[in-house]
Structure formats: C-alpha cells, structure tokens
Amino acid sequence: MVTDAIRKGANMTAPAIELRGVSRRFRGATALDDVQLEVMPGIVGLLGPNGAGKTTLLRILATVLGADGGSVRILGRDPADAVERTEIRRRLGYLPQELQYPRGFTTYRFVDYMAVLKEIEEPAARRAEVRRVLEDVDLRDRAAKSIRTLSGGQRRRVGLAQALLGSPELLVLDEPTTGLDPEQRVALRTVLAERGRASTVLIATHQTEDVAALCEHVVVLDRGSVSFQGTVAALVREAQGRVWLADTADPRAQVSWRTATGRYRNLGEAPAEAELVEPTLEDAYLLLRGATESEAVAA
Amino acid sequence: MTTWHVDPSTLGAWVEGTTGPLASASVEQHLVKCERCRAAVAGLVRIEDVPGAWDDVLAEVAGGAGLAERVLVRLGLKAGDAVVVGAAPVLRIAWAAGLAAVLGFILVASIAGHDRGLALFLALAPLMPVAGVAAAYGPSADPSYELALAAPYRMIRLVLLRSAAVLLTAVPLTVAAGLLLPLDGATAVAWVLPSLAFTLVVLGAGSWVDPWAAAVTVGAGWVAAVAVSARYGDVLAVVAPTALVGYVALIVAGALVLALATPTWRLDGQWSPMQSERERT
Ligand SMILES: Nc1ncnc2c1ncn2[C@@H]1O[C@H](COP(=O)(O)OP(=O)(O)OP(=O)(O)O)[C@@H](O)[C@H]1O
Ligand SMILES: [Mg+2]
Ligand SMILES: [Zn+2]
Question: Which of A88, B45, B274, B276 is the most exposed place for a label (fewest CB within 10 A)?
C-alpha cells in the first residue's frame, strides 16, 4: 500500500484538498457559502443535517460540478483547468449518493466498463483489478448476475467496488454505508481503513458510529458552511461534562431522548439527580447542532 | 441445451484465427456454453500456446459482452473502446429492432399514399440517427453518467465513438428503407445530408446543453419545415440543391464548433450551471 502511494506520487504531508471561499448556488438557493476547508490525507468524515451541502461539496471534489466562486485545489490541482481536471480524475474514486445503473448490465460488466473509463486498458490487468475490487466488497459470487437482480445493499456495494478501482489517491464517498448490513459495514470499514493509510478518503454520512470507528478527522457542514473542522477526539471533548442520564427528560436540555433502559439521555445542562456519562460522537454532534441552531435563531 | 456443435474445420480455423468477425463471435458464444466443443478446442494445439486465452473468452461472457461488441473488437477496435461503445444506453435497448419497426411503419404508410408517405419519410428519416445519438450519452440517457464524468476517459471520445456506432447502424438501415420507397434514387439518399448536419449540431451544442434538449429542438424545427413545405408547395423543397448547400454549411460549422470546443467540452465537467441544475430534477 505504501509503495502504491509512492508510485502514484501521493503526498502524505501536503493537503489533499484546499477550499478557499467556495460557494455554489442553485437557482438562487445557496448550497455552499464561503466554505474554507483543508483536508490532509487520511480518513475524514463529513457530517451535517439533510440539505447542509454535503453532496454539493463532494460533487465539486469529484469534478462533476463547478464552484461559483472561490478557489478549489484537489491533490494540488485546479479542477477548472481541463488538463489538471483529467489528472485529478486519474487519481479519483467516486461514489455518488444516488447511483443508478444502466439497464442490462451484470455486476462484472459494469465494473469492467468503469475500469475502462478509468483507463485500465490492458484486458488481463483489467480482469485482475475487477476481480480484486469485487472481492473487496464481497461480490465475487454475484459477478455474473444482472445488477437488477441484486439486493439494495448489494447494489450499493457494486458502486463501492467501482470507486475502489485503481486504488485511487482520493476516495470521495457519499453515504457509502446506506443499506449495508452490519457485517458488510464492518467489512467496508476494514477496506477503507486500509485505503486511508496511503490516501485520502472523504466520507459523507449520517452514521456517527461509522465516523467514530473510522475517521481521525471530522468536518461538520451546516447550511452550506463549515461549523466544525478538527479531530473526532476534539469534537467529542466539547461534549465532555454535558451528557447526563436521568429518570426524566430535562426541559432545559438541548436534546433528550428515552434510551432502551428507560432512562433519559439529556444533552446540555445537568438535570437534578443525574448521572454524568462519557459523551459519544453522536452526543457531541447533536450538541454542536443545537448550538448552531440557537445561534441562527439569535441572529 | 444446444443440439448443434461447431464443426471441426471451423474450430480449427477459429484457433488459427482465420474465421471472419461474425463467425468468430458466434463460435465464441457457443464455446462458452458447450463443454464438448471446449474439449475439442483444448485438443487443438494453439490454444495451449496462449495462456489465459480461455479466461479471456470466459470473462467476456461473464461480462455479457454483446455480439456487436465482439464484432467491433474483431474489426480492430481496441477492446476497451468496444466496451465503451457497448455500454451506450441506446445500444442496450433493442436499437436495431426499434429502428426497423419505425422504418417498417413508414414503408407501410407510404404505400398507403404516395405524397403523405414521402413527407413522413422525409420528416422522420433524418431524425433517426439524431435520436440515436441523443440517446447514446448524457445525463438524461445514461443513469451512471456522473460516474463517467468523474473518470479520466475523455468524454468527447466516448461521445464520438458511440455516435459513430449509432450512425453506422441507423444510416444504412434508413437508406435501405428509402430505396424501397417509390422515390427517385437521389431523394432516397439526400436526407443523409440534413441528418448529418443535425447530428453535428447536437454534438456541437453538447458543450452547452443536454443532447436530448438539442435533438428535440432540432427535430421540431425540421418536422415543421417539412410540414410547411408539404402544405404550401413541394415537400422536396427541403432537399432541393440550395437547401443541401445549407446542410453542408451546417455540417462544416458543427464540426468546427465541436473541434474548437473539444478541449473544454462543457458536458465534460458540467461547468455550466444550467446543466447541473436540470439533472437533479
Ligand atoms: N442540482 C441541484 N439543483 C437544485 N438545488 C440543489 C441541487 N443540488 C443541491 N441543491 C440544494 O442545495 C442544498 C444542499 O443540498 P445537498 O444535496 O448538497 O445536501 P446534503 O447535505 O447532501 O443533504 P442530504 O443529507 O439530504 O444528502 C439543498 O437545499 C438542495 O435543495
Ligand atoms: Mg447528500
Ligand atoms: Zn458444441
């Protein structure tokens, strides 16, 4: 893996992604607003509520969408320049949030077609690479099946397989674990963790457990802007001393919910007779969300 | 399940590589299904000289490579490019069959009434290749278009290869249909010029708009022109010599735009806001 990175010229000390003042509008609606972002190689989680702009950001990073303003550098290159854009694409693996497959394709054939688009020309090399990625997502026994006949989670894994082709230097994955069963999710973590040692893996997700299990760094988007950027540990630390288990839902809590044991998990102020517990990434994320919401109301 | 087998001399020729493209493709298709013929091939010398050759054929078929794709390879297209052509959405529906059905309909209609039939033929024939090209790539035709965009394979190459494949099936079929009509020979083939012109307009406009939008606009304009000239004069006016000069000019202009726009082809990057907005809907 390490030699892989060296051969492909992956630079593990320079930022893989640099965004300065990036914005993107759709018919007046602002999806991204003055985004500043610096991502170093490794695995980075991208969190944020529905409509926060995660997909828009990832599509810009996957070079399928242009920014309206600001500067974008991906792997040290400018995607607005046609030649540099191709260079980025040679080092990119991309899984869109919503991926549909052309009719009539078998699993093997679709991944093989993608391998051609990724310039893996030589037939024997292509066959070996297609087999490798199908094994990575545990779909080798579905190779000859029509994609139409696969289950939802299996179809999602076909998309993942094509993203892994050519061991890309930058992996952009938009909600990769949606629809995967627990075993497959864990298996995917293993594959991604391996990729993350030699490259940059950016994962947009609503699954805080996946971020906690995989990512060192996390970026939180909120209404088109970055509201947190740092290590997962730092985000969790912000929730330290603010997560309580109590017998009731405290009205002053930013968020509270009934847990399986019948007690209430309260985020925020300490309720009466409450037990202080260790925060999870989910607690920290919800607290951060609560804070930005009330800021927005105040403003 | 197969009752016939490849005869030994054909198998020998296939191993020698001296069968033609069509025969080779059908031999390969049979071999994958038939153990008996595979055993026969294994008995022939040359296959052992080519390690992995078997794997090639098997992988192709597990991949479901269509007959057209194998023929393209046998004709000398690079294997990868053949895969790209074979993945064209329009070629994965029953393109040739659909084309034949439409042409059959026109033939029947024109036998029913000469003038109407002629107008119908002139209105529709040039649009067949245009529709085929528009259905060969782009966000509305190809559900995995965004993936193709994010890949390094040049979009313009993909588009031109697929368009060529579409034209090579549509034009000969439609010309053949035209020759069956009670038309003079010149008219039966004159439509090819406007057809090429419209195809190039769609391709050239591809830098800015979705191919379907361009094809529908061009198609509507053409049908209107044919209808007007049929109603108020001679329908053949649309393929009169002066008009033909116009189509040639359009072909040149379209080719020029395409060539100039190629390096920054917009669909190759979706830098146009319009493009990215409409695909979400
Ligand atoms: N192609 C588009 N056309 C019009 N509006 C768009 C388009 N893409 C995104 N938007 C708008 O931009 C905003 C951000 O959308 P985006 O898909 O990036 O959010 P997201 O964070 O990925 O949300 P989710 O978690 O639901 O996937 C939304 O308000 C959305 O309506
Ligand atoms: Mg999204
Ligand atoms: Zn046989």
Answer: B45
Tell me the nearest-neighbour CA distance from B78 into chain A, angstroms: 9
User: Is A249 inside a domain boundary?
Assistant: yes
Nearest to A106 among B64, B268, B277 (CB): B64
Same domain, A154 and A179: no
Tell me the two tokens of residue A111: 């991944």
Q: Which residues of A112-140 are buried (b: 16+ CB within 10 A; e: fewer)?
A: bbbbbbbbbeebeebbebbeebbebbbbb
What is the domain count for chain A?
3
Q: Looking at the structure, do residues A179 and A145 belong to the same domain, yes or no? A: no
Name the residue facing B277 among A27, A59, A119 (closest C-beta).
A27
Nearest to A108 by CA among A78, A129, A83: A129
- A286 belongs to a structural domain: yes
For residue B264, name the pLDDT band (cuts at 50, 70, 90): low
User: Do A123 and A144 share a domain, yes or no?
Assistant: yes
pLDDT band, very low/low/confident/very high, at B53 (cuts 50, 70, 90): very low
| Residues ≥6 apart with Cβ < 8 Å to B263 | A82
* ipTM, 2 dp: 0.86
Domain identity same for A81 and A177: yes
CA distance B279 to A160: 22
Which residue from B140, B127, B278 is spatially nearest to B217, judged by alpha carbons?
Answer: B127
Contact call for B84 and A103, based on CB within 8 A: no
Name residue A183's amino acid.
E
Considering every ligand atom, which ligand is closest to the CA of B281? Answer: 1
Q: Are residues A245 and A209 in the same domain?
A: no
Any idea what DSSP says for residue A261? T
Domain boundaries, chain B: 8-45, 48-86, 89-280
In the chain, the amino acid numbered B228 is: V
State which residues form the domain around A108.
101-160
